[in-house]
Every structure is written in structure tokens, then in C-alpha cells.
Design a protein that fits this description.
The protein is of the alpha/beta class and about 375 residues long. It has helices spanning about 5-10, 15-20, 30-40, 85-95, 105-115, 145-155, 165-175, 180-190, 205-210, 215-220, 235-245, 260-265, 270-300, 310-315, 315-325, 350-365, and strands at about 25-30, 50-55, 75-80, 100-105, 130-140, 195-200, 225-230, 305. It has a four-stranded parallel beta sheet. Helix 3 links the parallel strand 1 (about 25-30) and strand 2. Helix 1 (about 5-10) runs antiparallel to helix 7, helix 7 (about 165-175) runs parallel beside helix 9 (about 205-210) and helix 11 crosses helix 13. The chain is globular.
């Protein structure tokens, strides 16, 4: 994968944007990623006060001669191939020199970002497990964001979110990134006050991690309990996925954006290509769900099965069912007031697609 594509995948987290709020950083590493970072910062900082130590033109030995090295906030090692090796080399070279903290761009700073911690510190190595941890396993467009919002709003069920997704996937595949270190840091720092951690694993991202790393089973050893979220109406789910990919709108968080989204939907042509796409997505979702069930069975895990349509019918009842499954105790005088910022998506075009899809199916049979 091209360097630009890797950084674009990471930017879904606004990583470099957040890092650019810090000044006087001493970057040391390979030319290509240093150039990308420098160009990004030049567009987001009035004055770039960082130092870029390019190892393609300078040697590690010359690091000792950099004036005022300790005046920088941090030394950040940058390598797409092997951060850990470069970190060791730089630390060894500077062992007799006064210097600021040495950090890895991805294994420290990126992990701190996702854990909502101060960026310029070493990420935890010896993690502390929460009292309870759980993961929601599901396929795309199953209503999982809505469910996570509801659970988060209880204030006692962790902050379930899609922590391990595209950025983690691409770093793992191409940059020897340790996603288990990220997961363990998340489990330590992204908990509610009662020490509960929740996360969400979407099938295709999960299986990419399985393909990239042999210690995949440690995800299932690290997390205590699992919830399998299923949407019964696979056709509606497939249509939702197709529309999201076409509009690049995955969720609506305000009513103000509904009109512009509706305009995008109206421009979509319902033809054989679109109906073929829907049919392929139905098959994809069914295969992914089946694979999730087989994976859980392989690890002898009995998940709680939650149906999306049941949440729509009775959200409080389903949330209480999940809290009971997780054995999460409610504080004295606790009153559950659940809510979600996710807005329902307009469904007029979905109904039209369903009608034409079913009509085509009936003609085939």
C-alpha cells in the first residue's frame, strides 16, 4: 500500500490534526513519512517549529551533535517498517545525552490518541485489566452504532465504539503495528468509573486482523464476554450498506443534514447494477455473519444474541437484558435514561429498491 493511503486511513481518527496542535517536536526517521508529516503540518500550523531528522541524508551518530535537543517536547521516531527497532537504535545513541522523551509515532502517540490520553507520553506496556470487558461482534449496517450509543449513555457499560477499524487494520497489515497493545491500552483507559470496558468489532475489520497476525486468538482471550448483534432483515441491511457506500454518509447526527442527504439519495439511479450490488451485499452479510458464529464456536464462546429489530421495538428492555448478561450492577437509586445521537435515515428510496429487488427476484423464479 502507498504511504499516502496508509496516512489517509489513519486520518479517519484525525491523528495528524491532533498531533499538529503540539509544537517543537523532533521527528527522526525515514524520508518519505517525514516529508508527508512535514507537508501536513505546514498546512495546519502558522509556523512549523518541528525538526525533521532525515535518516536518508544523516546518520544516527550525528544525533548527538544536534544543538538544543532537550528544548524539544519529544523525540518521535517515524518508521513504516520497524518502529521498535528504530526506537532502540535512537535511544541507544542518545543514552549519554540529555534528551526529551523518545516516542513511537504509532505505538505510543497513535495509541494514546485512541485512548483519549495525553499524546506525548509512552503508551502503557503492563496494562491493568478492567473488572469487566465485553465486545459487540457484528456485520456492517446492523445498527451497532445505535446500540453502542445506548450502552454508552447508561454511564455504567463502558464506552463501546469501533476502536479497531480501518486505521488499525492498515497499520497492522503494513507497518508491523501491535493491535493487541492498542486493545490492552484501551481496556485500561477507556472504561467507565465502575471499571467496565466495551468495544465493537465489525466482521470484515476483525477478519483482516486475523489475516495479518497469528496471535489473533488473544483478542478472544483478553475480552471476558461477547455479544452477537444480528439484523434479521438482511435485504434492508444490504441496501443500507449500498447507500452508505454511494453517498459516503454512514450516520446522521443532526436533523439539519437530512435535507442534503435526501438530495444525494434522489440522485441515485435504481438500475440492474445497483440491484446486483444489493444482491452481492446480502450474500456478503450472510457469509460474514456465519463466519462470526463459526469463530465464536471455535473459541467455545457462548455470546448473547441481540436482534436489532428487538432494540427498535424495546430499547430499554434490550439494554437491561445486556446489563444483566454482563452482570453489571446498577448503583443505588440508579435511573436509566438511555439515548442516542444517531438519527434515523430517510427510507423512501430503500422501499423503492426493496420493491424492485423483490420484483426482479419473482421474475427470475
Amino acid at each position: 500500500m502507498e504511504l499516502t493511503q496508509i496516512f489517509q486511513a489513519i486520518e479517519e481518527t484525525r491523528f495528524l490534526k491532533q498531533l499538529s496542535t503540539h509544537t517543537r517536536l523532533f521527528f527522526v526517521g525515514d524520508a518519505a513519512p517525514l516529508t508527508y508529516i512535514k507537508n501536513f503540518f505546514s498546512n495546519h500550523q502558522k509556523i512549523d517549529q518541528n525538526y525533521y531528522y532525515d535518516l536518508s541524508t544523516k546518520t544516527i551518530v550525528e544525533l548527538n551533535n544536534v544543538p538544543d535537543l532537550n528544548s524539544y517536547q519529544a523525540i518521535v521516531v517515524v518508521s513504516l517498517e520497524n518502529e521498535a527497532s528504530l526506537l532502540f537504535t535512537v535511544a541507544q545513541q542518545l543514552s549519554t545525552v540529555v534528551h526529551p522523551v523518545i516516542l513511537q509515532l504509532f505505538a505510543d502517540i497513535f495509541i494514546n490518541l485512541l485512548c483519549d490520553r495525553y499524546l506525548l507520553q509512552t503508551a502503557s506496556q503492563d496494562h491493568q485489566k478492567p473488572k469487566k470487558s465485553y465486545a459487540i461482534l457484528t456485520t456492517p449496517r446492523s445498527g451497532s452504532t445505535y446500540l453502542c450509543d445506548l450502552l454508552d449513555s447508561t454511564a455504567i457499560a463502558g464506552h463501546p465504539s469501533e476502536h479497531l477499524r480501518l486505521a488499525t487494520q492498515e497499520l497492522t497489515r503494513h507497518c508491523s503495528f501491535n493491535y493487541l497493545k492498542l486493545l490492552h491500552n484501551l481496556m485500561e483507559y477507556r472504561t467507565t468509573s465502575n471499571s467496565v470496558f466495551g468495544t465493537k468489532l465489525i466482521s470484515h475489520f476483525l477478519f483482516e486482523l486475523q489475516r495479518a497476525k497469528p496471535e489473533f486468538e488473544q483478542i478472544f482471550q483478553s475480552i471476558d464476554q461477547f455479544i452477537l448483534l444480528i439484523r434479521k432483515d438482511k435485504l434492508a441491511q444490504a441496501i443500507s450498506l449500498v447507500l452508505a457506500q454511494k453517498t459516503e454518509v454512514w450516520h446522521l447526527h443532526s436533523d439539519a443534514k437530512k435535507n442534503s442527504y435526501q438530495s444525494q439519495l434522489e440522485s441515485i439511479k435504481i438500475d440492474d447494477n445497483l440491484l446486483n450490488d444489493v444482491e452481492q451485499k446480502v450474500l456478503f452479510i450472510e457469509q460474514q455473519e456465519d463466519r462470526l458464529k463459526k469463530t465464536l464456536a471455535n473459541y467455545q464462546i457462548e455470546p448473547l444474541i441481540v436482534i436489532y429489530e428487538d432494540i427498535i421495538d424495546d430499547a430499554p428492555g434490550q439494554i437491561n437484558r445486556i446489563l444483566d448478561f454482563l452482570n453489571i450492577n446498577k448503583p443505588a437509586q440508579y435511573i436509566m435514561q438511555i439515548n442516542s445521537g444517531v438519527k434515523r435515515m430517510p427510507s423512501t428510496i430503500s422501499q423503492k429498491i426493496i420493491c424492485q429487488y423483490q420484483e426482479r427476484k419473482s421474475m427470475v423464479h
